[in-house]
Write a structure and sequence with these properties.
The complex is a heterodimer of chains A (82) and B (458). Chain A is of the alpha+beta class. Helices cover 49% and strands 23% of the residues of chain A. Chain A is built from three helices and six strands, in the order ββββααβαβ. The longest helix of chain B has 22 residues. Chain B is globular and about 85 Å long. The N and C termini of chain B lie far apart (71 Å). Classes of the chains: A alpha+beta (82), B alpha/beta (458). At the A-B interface, strand 4, helix 1, strand 5 and helix 3 of A face strand 1 and strand 2 of B. The complex binds pyridoxal-5'-phosphate. The site of pyridoxal-5'-phosphate has 16 residues of chain B, from helix 11. Pyridoxal-5'-phosphate binds next to helix 11 of chain B.
């Protein structure tokens, strides 16, 4: 599974800092939840289950958004293979 | 007793991550675009769409009236005789035209079809201004019979009209359209008679000396979406100069000067860094330069001509909204977000000229993303906004496109999709259907299928 780079800093209010290149980002609440899950969770399933427990969303739509979000994280160079 | 506490799940919105560019101002400068617009004149966007379908044009009568009053005040406070004539081509939905007529506007038309439309709405013939280069003999005859103000565009029209006047033994009321250098590039010299090279003065002489037509006015329409009031000062000065020359040579009074339309609305032109509301001159700015030029031209007090204005877009743009819905979200190969809407350039023609302000029609968190907005047509040019900053929106959620009242409801195309309904919200907040959604029957009605093509076997 891909995961978040270890040194990425995430603040409670949804700011993300990448110390290796100085980039910073902002997230909405769902983005923040997903990022925190990506940092902690053991599997993709765990990430999605946690989001579905908290938010009113069906599985198909979440799948779409999840992969889209990962793609953005990849483009912003925040991911690594683990 | 056991109280069951049920955890409500939270409203979902697409996860968004956005790079922060420290020190670089957002291209849009302001955040206004991010605020949701859930209602238009007290009507919920969602219920309007539920009742009339999506997409849907909505017109605020209140905005038309307040805008018109603002324009009228700007001129009336500076000049004693002012008359607006509603430019039909800008928006000729009868409900819209009649709001302007109720406020005292005459009609300004540029085709036989528009002319008939104004007559049908009971605009008195002598309060219709007939512009445009393409008036047929039948149309000119009708305009003569109704004593309309015929604005002559070229010499061929002048001679046709003179022949008709002789045949009918009538003396139609006419003006000539004058084109001129007002310092604006490109110069609009396709229509009318040129001022600088003497064509306009020549035409005036021909009309007055032939004595078959009554030369009652002089007309100029110097361009559209004009951001420079000073150009109007030049135009008003040149028309005044011609009027005074007519007085001095022939001892005749030119009754009116018609400065045409062209005042910019508050839209933002594509590629301009500043937004429309920050750059567009006000009615007061235009009124000040026009009136200054006329009152300083040398007219005696009882000679001041009536000032006619054919203002179109600046009077109706802000009163129009287009409501639409999200069909789908995509990620483009370069990483940008793309949103496909259920309306495109087929009904939002002005998307070619403007970066229309687009607001989400429901609440959202403060997170936004740069988004390309596409219409549903299968062609590359169907781009509604090349770059809009919007919150994530789900399929079926609604947006409000602002300032679409001018030219869209006349230049819209019946391409791929049928044209949507138009609703006008009255002064009390009550919505009225002013144009029905088109149906297949509207298309069928016009088509003629030859008998031998009726049957086929597949
Ligand atoms: C003769 C004439 N008058 C008035 C108008 C209205 O112009 P606008 O909508 O720019 O005010 C036009 C539009 O092109 C026009 O051609």
């Amino acid at each position: 599974m891909v995961s978040l780079k270890k040194n990425i800093a995430i603040s409670d209010s949804g700011f993300v800092f990448n110390p290796s290149n100085g980039d910073s980002f902002s997230l909405n609440q769902i983005g923040l939840d997903m990022l925190l899950q990506l940092k902690e969770a053991q599997s993709e399933e765990q990430v999605k289950a946690a989001i579905m427990a908290k938010y009113d969303i069906d599985r198909d739509s979440l799948d779409n958004d999840y992969y889209d979000f990962l793609k953005m994280l990849g483009q912003f160079k925040l991911l690594e293979l683990s | 007793m056991l109280i069951e506490i049920k955890m409500e799940k939270q409203r979902y919105e697409r996860p968004v991550i956005r790079r922060l560019n420290v020190g670089v101002m957002n291209k849009f400068g302001t955040r206004t675009e991010y605020e949701p617009v859930t209602h238009i004149d007290d009507n919920a966007v969602a219920s309007l769409i539920k009742e009339h379908g999506s997409p849907l044009f909505v017109i605020s009568e209140k905005t038309i009236r307040t805008t018109f009053q603002d324009a009228l005040r700007a001129f009336n406070t500076r000049y004693p005789k002012v008359q607006f004539a509603w430019s039909y081509k800008t928006n000729y939905i009868a409900g819209v035209c009649n709001v302007f007529h109720q406020m005292g506007s005459w009609a300004e038309v540029v085709s036989g079809f528009e002319y008939l439309k104004a007559l049908k709405s009971n605009v008195p013939g002598n309060k219709i201004i007939f512009n445009g280069p393409d008036k047929t003999v039948e149309e000119l005859t009708l305009a003569i019979d109704n004593d309309s103000l015929i604005h002559i565009d070229h010499l061929d029209e002048l001679y046709t009209l003179t022949e008709l006047a002789i045949a009918k033994a009538k003396k139609p009321r006419v003006a000539i359209r004058v084109n001129m250098d007002t310092g604006i590039y490109p110069m609009w010299d396709r229509f009318g008679f040129n001022y600088e090279n003497g064509q306009a003065w020549d035409a005036i002489n021909k009309i007055v000396l032939a004595d078959r037509l009554q030369l009652v006015g002089l007309h100029a329409h110097i361009g559209t979406f004009m951001l420079s009031p000073s150009a109007y000062g030049v135009a008003a000065g040149k028309l005044s100069e011609l009027a005074i020359r007519v007085r001095d040579k022939f001892g005749r009074k030119i009754e009116y000067l018609d400065l045409g339309g062209g005042f910019a609305s508050k839209n933002t032109l594509k590629g301009s860094f500043l937004s429309g509301p920050d750059t567009s001159p006000t009615f007061d700015d235009f009124a000040e330069t026009i009136v200054t030029a006329i009152v300083n031209a040398g007219f005696l007090e009882d000679e001041l001509p009536l000032l006619i204005l054919e203002t179109g877009r600046a009077l109706v743009d802000e009163a129009g909204y287009l409501l639409g819905s999200v069909i789908s979200n995509k990620r483009l190969s370069d990483g940008r977000r793309a949103t496909i809407m259920d309306f495109g350039v087929n009904i939002l023609f002005t998307a070619f000229w403007y970066d229309h302000k687009i607001s989400p029609a429901q609440d959202f968190s403060h997170h936004t993303e740069d988004t390309v907005m596409y219409g549903p047509l299968c062609m590359n040019i169907d781009v509604v906004r090349e770059n809009a900053t919007l919150p994530p929106m789900k399929r079926g959620e609604h947006v409000v496109v602002h300032s679409v009242g001018a030219y869209n409801m006349t230049q819209w195309m019946q391409f791929i999709a049928l044209r949507p309904a138009v609703v006008m919200i009255d002064m009390k907040g009550k919505p009225h259907l002013v144009r029905k959604r088109e149906t297949l029957a509207n298309i069928d009605e016009q088509e003629v299928l030859p008998e031998y093509l009726r049957a086929f076997k597949l």
